[in-house]
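haha ok so turns out i had the wrong file open the whole time. this is the CORRECT one, sorry everyone. sequence first:
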Amino acid sequence: VLDVGCGTGHLSVYLRDMYGVVPHGIDVKDVRQTDIPFTEFDGTSIPFPDNAFDHVILSEVLHHSHDPVR
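then structure:
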């Protein structure tokens, strides 16, 4: 599971612990409070090839964006 805008990483850890998913977080800066794998990115271009993840979550992110449609 790719967690776009993972923030602290707590949602990813919950999904890992409850459902056994393998999470990877990305965000514009590293503010994790958890041990999930993490990649910093520019906020517009996801730095992974297509189909690299089975699922992508985007939770509580768009309201932080200057251009959410982009």
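The mean pLDDT is 92.
again sry for the mixup
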